[in-house]
Amino acid sequence: MDRRDFLTIGAPRSREAIRGESRGVTAARDASQTPPAFARRSDTDLTTYSGSWTYKQAAHLLRRSTFGPTEAEINQAVADGMEATIDKLFTPWEPPLDGIDSWANATNFQALPDTANGEDFTTFQQKQYERRDLFIRWILLSMQHSPVSIQERLRLFWHNHFTSEVLVVNYPELIYEQYKLFKQHMFGNFKEFTYDISIDMAMLIYLDGIKNYKTTARNNINENYARELMELFTMGVFDWEGNENYSQDDVIAAAHSLSGWQYNVDNPRNILFVDRKAVFKSLWWDNGQKTLMGQTGAWNTQDVIDIIFAQRGDQIAKYICEKIYRGFVYDVADRVVVEQMANAFRAGNWELRPVFEMLLKSEHFYDETNIGAMHKGPIDYMVGMIREMDITTVPGLDDLANARANRDLGGRLQSLGQVPYYPPNVKGWPGGRTWTSTSTLPIRQKFGIDVGAENISLQRKQYYLIDPIEFAKQFSDPYDVQILTDEMSRFLLNTEPSEKEADLLFQTILDGGVDYEWDLDDPNQRPEERIRKFLQAIAQLAKFQLY
User: Fold this and answer.
1) Residue 379: what pLDDT?
2) Maximum Cα–Cα distance across the chain
3) Residue 484 belongs to some domain of the structure
4) What is the CB neighbour count within 10 angstroms for residue 515?
5) Contact by Cβ (8 Å): 227, 251
6) Do residues 359 and 373 touch, judged by C-beta distance below 8 A?
7) Which of 91, 93, 166, 319 could be disulfide-bonded to 421 (CB atoms 3.0-4.6 Å)?
């Protein structure tokens, strides 16, 4: 069974797969394809951007902080200006709970079949599968219907940092609680965020914190979370000079200190409903003396967080800011800029919002080298296209009645390598250039071609529908084919097409006709067919894979 298949009830994932010892295609890439760890590509820095604020800059900001901004949203951002748009981006919102409202906000979760009411194990597993499936669709729906807000982008970013997998956690209610936690801390205090994720029930299950305990009768210390806390979640293995950030002794000491967080019941296998929040059981905690990063004491979870942030603050600041840089600017880090971010991060006592705002307002962010330079991940590609082209009747999102069709969007995301809460391992998705390959690029392009041609049908019903005439009418002058072509290209391609590309697109929409005969309202001019051909041509350009 494919571990990322959220259409099938999954078996527990092996610890080796979670750790990523078998890294598959990504690890097998030729060294010549691997980008450098960092590079100075521009002489700009975090100085506040003071250049012209045009469609180009507004579109760049929204593409990096939302999923597939619409033409109207970009034009509004131009009118509002940079400061007001960024203020709007940092305004949280509440997605409707359609599809998950019956169970989302309860305080407990069902841990085993309700046999007293005739529920057998198969029925219970089917209910879990359906809830997992609905939760993934809910995430995608929240992205699709998001207002101008960075919220859903940040939730996906933090999910890929503090990684969990639904097939390991198993209970969708706990995954939902974790997703709410990402919203709570998405641009708050990172140190508090790190503590709260350490005692999050989904994380405790995923990285074996729930198995980490010591009692008078048994020593069952588990190092998995302690190791990932240092290696992946805070500081990384090495600092910028190649020195180790922590030792195996530090991992062991942290593991002992982190022990004691458990279900609120002694044996959840015998209890029908269990609280979603973990509780600290002092009798299950190793209260002995531990030495962590040179500090000795009877440390607990809060102490671990305090010590690593105090002793490795510089490394944590650089590691997290480099990850933010790679997520929002470019997949090859500029360490001059990252160091500026890191200094502000530490000086601001680990507050995230000032760091994000400083980056999104900087000259460096709007530098030409960084516009249209990132590879779209599958979610960016699929959800972005759905939003940009106002695609309707999307199976699994707009049409929930057809159970078979509902699997289509998830299957497409799976084939491209990114389904929320189905990462390849605890390291998350590597992103960057790994998103486009000889195997995924044809799949991406074919989807764009099929959507443009209205050529996707399931059980005799057409899906992924576009209204080309309405799409064209959102631009300033759809009755002038040259203006329309230029504005549709500007909107969909993220960077200005080359002279050759622009000519190709113009000739495609002319389709053998002449520009002065173009009339959006004249069926004899075949405007709908010609716009569809234009969209198909756009989808085949390399620039359409970037943002």
Assistant:
1) 97
2) 88
3) yes
4) 12
5) yes
6) no
7) 166
For the chain, how many structural domains are there in total? Answer: 1
Percent of the chain residues topping a pLDDT of 70: 93
The SS3 call for residue 109 is strand
C-alpha dihedral over 103, 107, 113, 117, to 10 degrees?
-80
Give the DSSP letter string of 131-183.
Answer: HHHHHHHHHHHHHHT--S-SHHHHHHHHHTTS---HHHH--HHHHHHHHHHHH
The confidence score (pLDDT) of residue 28 equals 36
Asked whether residue 8 is assigned to any structural domain, the reply reads no
Cα-trace Rg, the chain: 25
CA angle 424, 426, 431 (to 5 degrees): 55
Closest by CA to 506, choosing from 524, 488, 479, is: 488
Do 472 and 479 contact (CB within 8 A), yes or no? Answer: no
Average pLDDT (111-125) is: 93
Can you give the residue range of the structural domain that contains 537?
A: 468-545
In a domain, 365, yes or no: no
Decide: pTM greater than 0.70. Answer: yes
Q: What are the pLDDT digits (tens) for 223-249?
A: 999 999 999 999 999 999 999 999 999
- How many percent of the chain have pLDDT more than 90? 87
Mean pLDDT of 20-25: 42
Helix (H, G, I), strand (E, B) or coil at 38: strand
**How far apart are the C-alpha atoms of 545 and 433, rounded to whole Å?**
11
Q: Average pLDDT of 209-222?
A: 94
